[in-house]
Amino acid sequence: MEGINREVADPNSGGEQTNFDGKLNDSVKDRVKGVASSVKDKASAIPAMIADGLEAGAEALRQRKTSTSVATTAGSSVTVADDSSIAAVTDTLASGMQSSAEWLRDADIDKLKQGVEKQVKEHPARSLLVALGAGYLIGKALRR
Predict the structure, then answer these.
(1) b/e string for 76-95 if b means 16 or more Cβ within 10 A?
(2) Residue from 90, 38, 36 nearest 59 by CA
């Protein structure tokens, strides 16, 4: 047992090994930067996609409001509420969706991020409760 050399060689002690590690690290860094750039580009397009969806939904509601007609058969027990109240709710919902779409298009994401960070730093407990509540509501909505 005395003849066994138990020293561990330092992988960075040789000149070639350091050069290989440097090239490998540069390659990995370049790939990570490329992936990060791609993710950032895709993430920046998300608000526009959501805004487009909101606008399409608002337009569909408005079109549905104008073409709503109730067809009932003899002996059916369908009760329809006052058309004007349904139209008012539909119009309010469509207007809200349109406003949300406009806000998403005009919102400065970096400024919004800074505002959220400031709120979390100033009011951490309240921010945690809001996040838990929002998560609960989103979870309930997605389960249905």
Answers:
(1) eeeeeeeeeeeeeebeeebe
(2) 90
Whole-model pTM: value is 0.49
Do the Cβ atoms of 80 and 119 come closer than 8 Å?
no
69-81 tens-digit pLDDT = 444 455 555 555 5
Do residues 98 and 58 lie in contact, with contact meaning Cβ atoms separated by under 8 Å? yes
Collapsing DSSP to helix, strand or coil, 8 comes out as: coil
List the chain domain ranges. 18-68+83-107, 109-144
Tell me: the pLDDT tens digits for 22-58?
666 778 888 888 888 888 888 778 888 888 998 998 8
Q: Are 57 and 96 in contact (CB under 8 A)?
A: no
Give the ranges where the chain is alpha helix by DSSP (H).
15-66, 83-106, 109-122, 124-143
Handedness of CA 26, 27, 30, 35 (dihedral sign): negative
Query: Are 70 and 80 in contact, with CB atoms under 8 Å apart?
Result: yes
